[in-house]
Design brief:
The structure holds 2 protein chains of 2 kinds. Chain A is mostly helical. In chain A, 67% of the residues lie in helices and 2% in strands. Classes of the chains: A mainly alpha, B mainly beta.
Chain lengths: 145, 197
């Protein structure tokens, strides 16, 4: 595969397959995995023994980094990703870029560009003002957590 | 980064499973075979979320086994070079530190740790700035950038297999991602120090 050598997320070179795929933010993965874990709990006494190490580690990771420490707050959390998507999709970003911003929640324009350099380089004329507005929208939702 | 993607796999099934529960058998075998595996192309398969389609089976000549093409949706974790993500430090030594982001391990060499951070040995080895304000130790949360990925062959898997559930068939983990990262760049580094909580 020729794309292997050129792979660079900073320039959004992640391969066609992943560019077209649905990208998931950590908080969304947390909901999916938590749901699956609950299903296992109903059918098995020891669900942690039923899942792979990859599942276990991923669940721990997304729980830790989706900024929801309380697993019971799933219903509240469910509203969060959809409103986040709605707001971020106004800015015509690639899913990968959206997810990086959603996961890392940069606070300044400078930080956002450092986290997702491709928002500047892909010639979509995102000026600092537009990025600033986007970050504002992002922080607004965060307040409702 | 986590993705939700559609993958395809040919499932070979023994004739004893043919009956009313054929679909359930195919799906449970699929989960056992695929969840927890890793490939260089798609990364780690974390969980199957749904089965889109099970195609017509094809009888294998001479064995009676039947192959079913199965299309399924799953959550995968695929690290990319250039990606910035958060990770938890799992081990610190004088060569650098290891961090984990979900299923993937990332090594950050001491050359890629800011120059003002010095290694301190002891019970809790760590990297600390000269004024002591920033500290990286086990369980610290760091934001890092992946600068290289490698897909390891089976050898490393043997160590991991000990903690794997019993049903997990040997050899279902044909490869494993390993990443090299850096925190020597703007807006990278410690985001949370376990000792200050």
């Amino acid at each position: 595969m020729s794309g292997e050598e050129e792979e660079n997320a900073a320039e959004l070179k992640i391969g066609d397959e992943f560019l077209k795929a649905k990208c998931l933010m950590n908080c969304e993965v947390a909901i999916i995995l938590h749901h699956k874990y609950e299903q296992l709990q109903q059918t098995s006494d020891d669900p942690m023994n039923q899942v792979s190490q990859v599942f276990e580690k991923s669940l721990q990771y997304v729980k830790r980094f989706s900024r929801y420490k309380n697993p019971d707050a799933v219903r509240q959390v469910r509203e969060y990703p959809s409103s986040l998507w709605k707001i971020l999709s106004r800015y015509q970003l690639a899913e990968f870029e959206l997810c990086v911003l959603g996961n890392l929640c940069p606070e300044t324009v400078e930080e956002a560009i450092a986290m997702v350099p491709s928002i500047k380089t892909r010639g979509r004329a995102h000026d600092d003002e537009a990025i600033e507005k986007m970050l504002n929208d992002l922080s607004l939702i965060k307040k409702f957590e | 980064m986590f993705f939700h993607i559609v993958l395809e796999r040919n499932m070979q099934l023994h004739p004893r499973h043919f009956g009313r529960n054929l679909r359930e058998h195919i799906i449970s075998k699929l989960m056992k075979d695929v969840e927890g595996t890793c490939s260089g192309r798609h990364g780690f398969v974390v969980a199957i979320t749904s089965v889109e389609n099970i195609g017509k089976g094809l009888i294998r000549d001479g064995t009676g086994f039947v192959t079913f093409p199965v299309k399924y949706q799953c959550v995968v974790f695929r690290p990319f070079k250039g990606e910035i993500l958060e990770a938890v430090v799992s081990m610190v030594n004088k060569m650098g530190f290891f961090a984990e982001a979900g299923p993937v391990q990332i090594f950050v060499s001491n050359h890629l740790i800011p120059d003002d951070m010095e290694f301190q040995s002891g019970d809790m080895p760590n990297y600390t700035t000269s004024d002591g304000s920033v500290k990286i130790q086990k369980d610290s949360e760091v934001r890092l950038k992946i600068i290289g990925t490698r897909v390891d062959a089976t050898e490393i898997d043997k160590n991991i297999s000990q903690s794997r559930p019993k049903w997990d068939p040997a050899g279902s983990h044909p490869s494993r991602f390993f990443c090299i990262g850096t925190i020597k760049d703007d807006f990278l580094g410690v985001i949370n120090d376990p000792t200050t909580i």
